[in-house]
Structure formats: structure tokens, C-alpha cells
Amino acid sequence: xxxxxxxxxxxxxxxxxxxxxxxxxxxxxxxxxxxxxxxxxxxxxxxxxxxxxxxxxxxxxxxxxxxxxxxxxxxxxxxxxxxxxxxxxxxxxxxxxxxxxxxxxxxxxxxxxxxxxxxxxxxxxxxxxxxxxxxxxxxxxxxxxxxxxxxxxxxxxxxxxxxxxxxxxxxxxxxxxxxxxxxxxxxxxxxxxxxxxxxxxxxxxxxxxxxxxxxxxxxxxxxxxxxxxxxxxxxxxxxxxxxxxxxxxxxxxxxxxxxxxxxxxxxxxxxxxxxxxxxxxxxxxxxxxxxxxxxxxxxxxxxxxxxxxxxxxxxx
Length: 316
What we know:
Main location: membrane
Organism: Nocardioides zeae
Largest sheet: none
Domain ABC transmembrane type-1: 99-307
Keywords: Cell membrane, Membrane, Transmembrane, Transmembrane helix, Transport
InterPro entries: BPD_transp_1_N (IPR045621), MetI-like (IPR000515), MetI-like_sf (IPR035906)
């Protein structure tokens, strides 16, 4: 198991280095001079050659390409992601402020999706009949409904009509825990609905496939109860594709938070990225993209390790 885990971590480190290289190449292969773009400020005017030269020196763009690549790589690996063009704040510090908020939101949405989706899909596969039909309809709606539409409906119902929850905003846990939880509920549910529907559909399909295996009939013929066979053997052997779905879904949620954070005025990592793109704050954009890429690779490593725990054959 240790060798398997170390091998997966090694692959993950290689992927992170590849992503960093692609980000560096993307910034340098895109047509146009970043210094000119930064100085133009979108008004169509042209900057003086001296001003462009100063900005290029400030950004390190006057250095040889290999030197720039090494500085970029060493900075990323040591957490030095530069400073924001807008306010001079260290990019790592800005990301450090926003990242825990987004991780908290994604973590709660994932917890809701797994706690609701796995039992829901397993029960639909086991009971069948009208419950399975209703599950298929509801999960289809949940998958098809855009997250920002569902978020707006939650605000309309629970904030404007019923007045039960605040429409949006953010409060630190240390300042007011109750208010913090209230402001987190609706964004997390808006993110979790589509995810829970996907998990339920995948769980249902995996359990149905497992229920028709020969070894399940053999286990029942040996005298084991349906409940014991289902709980101890069928459900566990159905979890591999569900783990894959959850792993991919968590990565997708990191992207989906862009819309949810806008709808609920939630100051997370995605809001920081949108604001940086709007202001052409390249160091912040670069830092956020690197952070999301590292998170995505880390999630895939965790999923691979879970594969090895659930199915020892994967470790070979």
C-alpha cells in the first residue's frame, strides 16, 4: 500500500510541474506584450517606450526565457507568487484569505451531496418501482438545473418570501458563528443539488449492476439475508465508480463556485479570480489558477488512494 501511495504522489508531483510549465508557456505564447496590455488600461492608448521598459523590468520580462521559467517555478514551489498589480498585496496572502472560505463552501456542499446522494441512489436501486421512477425524474431535474438559477430561486423563496435566511454576504466564524452558518447554508445547498443528483444516479446504476452479479445469488443461496448481502457486499463493491464521481465532482465544484459566489455575494477564491481577470491583475490570476490546479491534482491523488483501499487489486 505504501508503494502504491508513493507512486500516486510521484505522479501527482509530475502533473503539478507539467501544469506549472503549461501556465508559464501560456503566459508567454499568447500574442501581445503584457507590459503594453497593462499600461493600456483598455482605453486604446499607447504607452511610451520608457514606461513599457520599466514595467517589463518590474515584471522580469527583460530576463532570458529560461531565467524567467526558473524564477517562476522556484517562486511557485516556495509559495512566492508575486504581488498584486492593484494593491501591492502578496498574492499568497490574498489567496490565503479567500481559499479557506471556498474550501469550507465546497466541503459542506460535498458532504451534503454524499450524505444525500449515496443512500438515495442505493435505496432507489434496492426498492425499485415508483420510488425509483420518482428518483430518476428528480435527479434529472437536479442535474439539468443551472446552479445560478437554483441559487436565485433559493434567495427568492427563503430570503424574500419567507425571510428565514439572509440573501447573501459573509461573516467570519469568530465574529458571529450563527450568522456565519446562516450565510453558508444556501450557497452550499445551491452547489450540492446538482452534485447530489449525479452521485445518486451513479450509485443507483452501480448498485443495480452489482445486484445482478452471480456471486450475489450465491451469497443468498448460502443463507445470508438480503439485508446482510446488500449492506456488507453489494454496497461496498458499488462504491468505486461513486468515488470517481465524487472526486471529479469536487474538482467541478471549485469551478462552479464562480457563479454561486456571485449570486450570494460570497467573497471566496472564485470572486478573487473574476475581479483579477477584470482588472488584468496577472499575478493574482496566475496564483489562483496554480492553486486550483494543485487542489485538483491533490483530490485525484486522494481518489486514487481510496481506490486502493476499496479494491486491493488496483494496487498491483
